[in-house]
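ugh ok so i messed up the first submission bc i forgot one of the chains. this is the corrected input, ALL of the components this time, i swear. 399 residues overall. if the numbers dont match what u have on ur side tell me asap before i send this to the collaborators (the ones from the other lab, u know who)
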Amino acid sequence: MDTLNTLLLGFISIVLINNLVLTKFLGICPFLGVSGRIDMAFGMGMAVTFVVTLSGILTWMIDHFLLMPFGLEVMRYVCFILVIAGAVQLVEMYVRKFFPPLYESFGIFLPLITTNCAILGLCLFINLWEINSLLEASVLSFGAGVGFTMAICIMAGIRENLNLVDVPQCFRGAPITLITAGLLTMAFMGFSGMIK
Amino acid sequence: MSDISTPALGPTFTAGFWKENPVLRLLLGMCPTLAVTAALKPALTMGCCVIFVLTCSNIVVSLMRNLLKPHLRILMFTLTIATFVTIADLILKAFAADMSAALGPYVPLIIVNCIIICRAEACASKNGLVVSVIDALGMGLGFTMTLCVLAGIREVLSTGKLMEVSVMPSAFVPWAAMGMPVGAFITLGLMLGLVNIIAKKTS
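and heres the new structure output, hopefully the right one now
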């Protein structure tokens, strides 16, 4: 029961309170780049969720079974980025084979998941928070993906309506998106303090 | 530099300051820009780390540009960058432990900073050593300057201090929100809007 409690709290915390995009500033590039339409945003969120879950679990295992016993912590970053690049390659092949239209519409943003800071960031945070069980690490990884999907979908929903609004010329595009994101983080600040 | 299309060094160096400023004009490297700019000191440290990594990776990429295979290119870039980021991280841990703790995971996150991979791809893999180094320094300085301006604004407004020295009149009430994520997003959004206005006026 205790474990279940920890897992549930960890999941809620990473989705709402420590949301990677809105409070840790990770994954801002796709957050600004792909949040134009809600279906693309959802597809992107799914791809990131898959990659982040896979690489979160793999990097935890590499870190605990390979790097730490042999004292190779120096190699950590190089290993992490290799695992992520491999996972992204896998997703790219899968999407190209089974969802060609989605693959076309993602364009450059699909291989760019490799350089999505949310993924490497999460792997580093798992290491930093000293998560010691594989189950907890995988729940956190999955939660991070869900949090990212949620943030990017909310943003896409707002931006679809923003298209109809008369924004000053010089604020169109990135500036107004950033200001909107700022207001969104303010809303999410309401969740902080929900879990100690 | 026998390349016919060798760019002039002066413009290459200054391009990163305004015309091709990585953050303000190309929208690259937004994550560290937002994350480490709550105060000036971490922003400056971050800028120095990025200059170091950018210069070293541009040197290595430029030296091995003739050996690169197209499909393995990005992987080689990433591995080069990861190596130098590890070096920078270890140096920082050894000589500036408090800064290293303050920056936390954002130092290793330089690996996935788009600026560095973008310069490796757009400049270092096509140009000779001198041009690549100049380009890296210019871009790095442009990035650091932007970071410092943003961090300066946020630190003054959120605490009334700059580098731990009071600069505001004593009647000033600090805006706590500027130190939080809200402040980062909104300040950068307004800065980008301002830059757009200036760019339109001057062009």
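quick check: The interface with chain B takes residues 22-29, 32, 74-78, 81-82, 85, 111, 114-117, 120-121, 124-125, 128, 168, 170-171, 174-179, 181-183, 185-186, 189 of chain A (CB under 8 Å). that seems consistent at least. Chain A has a mean pLDDT of 85.
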